[in-house]
TrEMBL record, chains A, B:
Transmembrane segments: 124-141, 177-197, 209-231
Name of the protein described by the UniProt record: Aluminum-activated malate transporter 10
Localization in the cell: Membrane
Signal peptide, first to last residue: none
DNA-binding keyword on record: no
Keywords of the record: Ion channel, Ion transport, Membrane, Transmembrane, Transmembrane helix, Transport
Amino acid sequence: MAHQKEATNRVEWKIRVADGSSKDLVPESGPAGRAWLGIQGLIAGLVLKVGRCFKKAWDLAVDDPRKVIHCLKVGTALTVVSLFYYTRPLYEGLGRNAMWGVMTAVVVFENTVGATLSKSLNRACGTLLAGSLAVGVHWIASQSGEKLEPFVNGASVFLLASAATFSRFIPTVRTRFDYGALVFILTFSLISISGYRVEKLLKMAHQRLSTIAIGGFMCILISILVCPIWAGKELHLLITRNMDKLAYSLDGCVAEYFNNSGIPVEKSQGYKCVLNSKAAEETMANFARWEPAHGHFKFKHPWRQYLKVGASMRRCAYCIEALNGCINSENQVPESIKQHLSGNCLRLGSVSSSVIRELAITMRTMKKSPRTQNLLKEMKNSVQELHNELGSLPNLLLPPPSIEATLPLEEVIPIATVASLLIEVAARIEGIVSATEELASLAKFKPAVERIAPH
Amino acid sequence: MAHQKEATNRVEWKIRVADGSSKDLVPESGPAGRAWLGIQGLIAGLVLKVGRCFKKAWDLAVDDPRKVIHCLKVGTALTVVSLFYYTRPLYEGLGRNAMWGVMTAVVVFENTVGATLSKSLNRACGTLLAGSLAVGVHWIASQSGEKLEPFVNGASVFLLASAATFSRFIPTVRTRFDYGALVFILTFSLISISGYRVEKLLKMAHQRLSTIAIGGFMCILISILVCPIWAGKELHLLITRNMDKLAYSLDGCVAEYFNNSGIPVEKSQGYKCVLNSKAAEETMANFARWEPAHGHFKFKHPWRQYLKVGASMRRCAYCIEALNGCINSENQVPESIKQHLSGNCLRLGSVSSSVIRELAITMRTMKKSPRTQNLLKEMKNSVQELHNELGSLPNLLLPPPSIEATLPLEEVIPIATVASLLIEVAARIEGIVSATEELASLAKFKPAVERIAPH
């Protein structure tokens, strides 16, 4: 019956659009069929997209399992706080303010201990400060008569919100107390519009603060006790890893140029990580200042000095970037000149990267290495040797009987540039050494008793 | 009378501590006096600190008055939302949920329109999604009996909070939907622990969503209508300004080296701004995507291409940094050689910076400049001329009758390096040109009809 009707419809439709030439209708190409195909395509696309997303998430999880642990920690913290309030029904005990505990847990729990501490303390201080100010303003408003009350309230919200918002632009506030200022505005406005009497406000403030304290405390506890991720340790590791990357890419760069490379090219791009890690370093250093002593790091560990070490490494990386550019440029140098200088350049490159590696070992073991100064001396000698070699180049290039004085200077320039940049890199490595040594003395690294072999 | 008593006290005290050797008591050095002095010092220090803080804030305000306007905007938005609810007493109409409107206004109002829009939409979507999910889960929990209910609730909070936290690590989510994920967790947990019946939940959800909508809408309105700060426009200006800085510091660098500088040295450090503006560019490009059409920018303006232009500028800045390092290094070149190359190097430097300035004009006027290609050609010619000049250097350095073939190559190398780096800078400027031209074609810049003179 349905089939018959469909056939009729189709015929009718065919008759309506017929323009003389008759066409066979392929069942699949009917509007329903096409829609079905479209839906199938859409579903397939969606499935593919979701699958790709899951793949990405899985890779992320495998790459850094601590991220998964962090998620489970957040889940646990929230569940604990939730159940804590769920078992004692709302509207009793801590009352409706229980939600502030959950809210605190959600907003405050961050990936690193430092970030969690910073946010918790900011939230606590912001709430306290705003709360006491708001109670005071509220009292003044309630004394000023029914007509003036909304104006006093409105003016106080306007003034304090504007001032607090402005304070968020001040650099020190922005880096350390931004969240506190936000919470200050929030709390002050909420209390101002609440319209409670002062006595009730005080009771509410007490309840709200205690729930916030419980939520924040739970987060801090879980964040410190279960697989803690310390911002300070992460910063230390980042700087150490970046040193290794810098050394590796310097080696790779020089090896690539002098054609005795066994290192794949993509490995020598590690300096790009150094170029791009400024923001990460600053964030971590900022959070690390809030952290208590952990592992080898004391409470007042000189985290700011890590930024200086990072900056000196970046200066070196800029130069390696330029070096890389020169290496990839079109001007090729005759093999003979290259061969002549390759020994010295390779030596300077390798001793330079050894210096960086030694610094990485100093950082990793947190012990002053006695080898650094020797390697530094060796590096300076290599620089001098390369200088001498460059000076003696013309003698070697022109056979003694030659009278014509035209030296193929143009052909020497590319390699001379590479050599100059290597020398400049060495000069900047001295900057890394002095920044790292300052760090070692500020953080009171002990001298290494036994020599740890570099790997 | 009081004076007499004070004198007595002082004598009594003197007798008590006397140890044989008599001392004159200087009135100011008594404990009270010292404490008073200490307090005075403390107050003076505090006043000085507060004064310095105000000075800093004042400088900040003078430097960018739009920041002050932003603060007044936030204050206005909050006051309006507050008074809106204050005039119709709480517990009526929208009920206690009024606070969500204030909360939204505080949290959502950001400096740029794009950021405000991004946060508002994230908040709306996060709340809606979490709300509908939570109502569903809540219903299931309520159907599963009184004993199982807390477990179903707890498990759902744990699972969804963990999953949402994990999603915040996925790069695309982190850059665009981070706040949405946070709001999702928050809303879901709050509803889960609320313990309401589903019907009451729906009513509450309706109220809460409408207050959030009013708060968010007010923020968006004020942010767009009153002196709007568009992230897109800011990004455009940042890139344009950075181009000018790059050109200026390239000129400054070359001029400083060839000793005919009139430009103060600190002015030539502008490339450092380019080196450090990656994070700012990325943030702004991310917010710009949320903005509607404004000024000369359409809705789908190619903001991502700005990042590519920025990256190409950074590559150029790395090279200028290395150039700056070589200029400041100790190896000085004999004046004669310097004089010989200075003309060509200065010409290349000036034509290179002209290319960058022309690109800045293209960006500023949003019109394709016909001069760019000519300048580019000129730059390539200058590069070739410098190459030739370097090649002819030995002929000039050695007088024709000389037989001895030792060229002072070591002395040539520093200037050869500078020249090579200038050539490399020119090569990287070509990268900026092609990135900017791609931007011009993607954003459909019109060809310039009249020539605008560079200033």
